[in-house]
Amino acid sequence: MVRVQVAPASEASAELLAAFHRLIPQLSSSSVPISANQLAEMIAAESTTVFVATRAQEIVGLLTLVVFRIPTGMRAWIEDVVVDESARGAGVGESLNRAALDEARRKGAKTVDLTSRPSRAAANRLYQRLGFVARETNVYRYEL
Question: Is residue 57 within 8 Å of residue 15, measured between CB atoms?
């Protein structure tokens, strides 16, 4: 079994941009591809960490962690977790999430939240196994 390496992205390389263009459609078919400038902006943002999972020198997973201060403390959100179809079930998602949780803890976050569609059964099992607890709350979205 080939080991998975997870690390924060340090630059908006062409390889990383291509990975976003290949992987994000596996998560969301309605997502518009990001530009090189948008990727560079995410990587440069102090509040955002883009984690990249690599196996055998191929990018097989992505996760975005956002840590921010609000009046009640430091909070964190995990967003846009995607593992390539060819690498699912091999621990890539777990490795990405553990790296994000460690980083959120290091940055002083009080909680880490995420959302996951009910249809993503394997992902939901993973989140529960990692210790995430479903909250009794309503999620609202306002389209701009």
Answer: no
